Amino acid sequence: MQLDEMFWSASLEQLKQGYVFEEDTNCYRCLLCGETFEDGEVFLLPQLNKFYEARKYVAHHIKEAHGSVLQTLLGMDKKATGLTELQKELIEQFAAGQTDAQIVKSYGKGSASTIRNHRFVLKEKAKQARLLLAIIELMEASTVSAPKFVPIHRTATQVDERYALTEEEYDAVLKQYFPSGLNGPLTNFPRKEKRKVAILRHISSFFERGAFYSEADVNEKLKPFSEQDYVTLRRYLIEYGFLDREDDGSKYWIKS
User: Fold this and answer.
1) Does residue 127 surpass a pLDDT of 90?
2) Rounded distance, CA 118 to CA 103, Å?
3) CB pairs under 8 A, 24+ apart, for 133-139?
4) According to the model, what pLDDT value does residue 81 have?
């Protein structure tokens, strides 16, 4: 299972703590970057001269590497959270324990009643989200043959109908465009957006999360899929939010 799939399939409690325990690997995995910590291993904190076991250390890792789970989630796009930039700013201040009066003072305008209304709206959104989650889970529990959709990667640049891709459709696209096997080559690059997403998703899985690649390294990974159009594949991987790069093209990595 890819990191994006693990992130979106995590329970509410797992999302709040920022990590999951994988029984098959006996490791705690950070949901925010994918780094793992094996259960039973101890980790040294030089600055404190202490040793932490894996579960405690993954929580320390999240704080050191990501600031907090809340900061990471608030850093996600509106398409993922449904929150406006103003709502995100207010949530940060609410979480910091700021009073309505203090928040008004920090903005230099508005009123305490306006801030209270924002608090109310957020609580209403939370109620609606809980009800919607219950409704969807009940719907899926009563639907025997409901199609399973391929998870959308968190860094998708535009989420629309092109991502409404079932697992069955995904497998069919890969079989059609990689007849010689999933390692390539690609027969051709399709024009239909949904098929493009499926192919790019598959190709991106050949890059290791957390690793950095030169442009030459990226090209070498893409050439087995298309000796002629590897530059086009590289461009699309960036455009669709699978890869990111430095402005000068000196470094590439899996976008997270």
Assistant:
1) yes
2) 12
3) none
4) 85
Q: Average pLDDT in the 197-224 region? A: 92
Task: Give tens-digit pLDDT for 140-158.
Answer: 777 666 678 887 777 777 7
As a whole number of angstroms, the distance between CA 187 and CA 180 comes to: 9
Q: Reduced to 3 states, what is the DSSP secondary structure of residue 245?
A: strand
Alpha carbons 68 and 2: distance in angstroms, whole number? 22
Q: Which amino acid, 35?
A: E
What is the arithmetic mean of pLDDT over 99-118?
91
> What Cα–Cα distance (Å) separates residue 156 from each residue in 9, 49, 66, 244?
17, 41, 20, 11
pLDDT surpassing 90 at residue 2: no
Tokens 């490791």 found at = 27
Both tokens assigned to 206: 């050949």
- Strand pairing of 50-53 and 252-254? unpaired
Tell me the helix, strand and coil percentages in the chain, rounded to 5: 50, 10, 40
- End-to-end CA distance of the chain: give it in Å, rounded: 16
Within the chain, what is the greatest distance between any pair of CA atoms?
65
The residue assigned the tokens 């050949």 is 206
Give SS3 for 243.
Answer: strand
User: Taking the model in full, what pTM does it have?
Assistant: 0.65
CB 2 within 8 A of CB 13: no
The pair of structure tokens assigned to 216 is 């030459």
